[in-house]
Amino acid sequence: MNSSGVRDEVFDLLVVGAGPTGLACAIEAQKAGFKAVLVDKGCVCNSLFHYPSHMTFFTTSELLEIGDIPFPSPNAKPTRNEALQYYRQVAAHYRLDVRQYHRVDRVTGAEDAFTVHTVDRFGRHGVLDARKLAIATGYYDLPNMMGIPGENLSKVHHYYDDPHPYFGLDVMVIGGKNSAAIAALELWRHGARVMLVHRDAELHRHVKYWIKPDIENRIKNGEITAYFRSQVVEITPDNAVLETPEGRVTVRNDFVFAMTGYHPDFDFLEELGVRFEGPDKLPVCDAETLESNVPGIYLAGVIVAGSRTNEIFIENGRFHGRQIAQALASKR
Predict the structure, then answer these.
(1) What pLDDT does residue 5 have?
(2) CA–CA gap between residue 260 and residue 173 (Å, rounded)
(3) Least trusted range by pLDDT, from 4-8, 45-49, 98-102, 265-269
């Protein structure tokens, strides 16, 4: 604020979310001559940081590049730690203004005069003024809840990190896609007794080709117990109750990994005034400019696809920043 108590710093673009797509939005805006700032409730690439520490990407390093900065990796597919290092270096190279550990509480104002109200990790309030907003909040922070008794027990996790703490224990993995298959295999290989529960008759067809036969063979050999066409209906401190084609079954259980997917923060978008269409909750968004139905608010990354979270990844979402920067330039 200046001596009159008026805030005098106004950003051309404020990006909510400092993941790879959000970083790309700020970079492209800066390259186009705009003043940008990023706000994230966690650290830079917060969702990536919460991936399993030894995770390997399904894609190659060049498809994760942003800002025209090469991503060198000695591996055919880079690791989570390599990606974090790369994105840190890119943020440092472009000297991005990233306000980490600041949650966006609400947004007031309108195009060319937005006020973003934030709260830091100590509960202190702040405000930032911006002419335009880009929402790149991803979806990994909000798991799809099962809505069953016992889901709030401390033994139930919606994120898989490391297999070591589950050695020698009965661990249930719920789901049939890549994340569930990978968790089940790693847990089994590190000495857990693993049970996989999936509501469909078989694993999802999108499970990666080098993972699918591995877990199918473990199931066939009885090394991983699998319940297909089944659902978990209750979780207790010592057990889990399943509804199976043969009836209800109670099994011994120490931990549960509910790999049931994630979804964008639709509530936050609705509070901004963004409208949705269809059963997949596709946000109203111009395909070329990525501007939503709210003037001056742009959408980037996976949230553009609504509930269809398997359509946009870093590989294609990273280009949204360029589209938004071009749209900003056309309004200059």
Answers:
(1) 44
(2) 10
(3) 4-8
Of 326, 264, 269, residue with least CA distance to 297: 269
19 & 117 share domain: yes
Question: Can you tell me which residue has the tokens 């993995």?
Answer: 173
Query: Quick one: 207 and 86 in the same domain?
Result: no
| Tokens encoding 236 | 């207790």
Tell me the one-letter amino acid at 167.
F
Cβ neighbour number for residue 125 with a 10 Å cutoff: 9
Same domain, 19 and 136: yes
Domain closes at, from 258, 274, 298:
258
Dihedral sign, Cα of residue 79, residue 82, residue 83, residue 84: positive
Distance CA 33, CA 152 (A): 48
DSSP-assigned letters across all residues of 292-305: BSSTTEEE-GGGGG
Give the residue numbers spanning the domain of 126: 10-142+262-331
Q: Can you give the CATH number for the domain in which 90 is found? A: 3.50.50.60
Six-digit token pair at 113? 């005069």
Residue where a domain terminates, one of 258, 282, 311: 258
For residues 46 and 136, membership in a common domain is answered with yes
- pLDDT for the residue 211: 94
Q: How many domains does the chain have?
A: 2
Is the entire prediction scored with pTM above 0.85?
A: yes
Q: Are strands 193-198 and 170-174 parallel, antiparallel or unpaired?
A: parallel
Q: Cβ distance 53 to 162 under 8 Å? A: yes
Sign, CA dihedral 289-293-294-295, equals positive
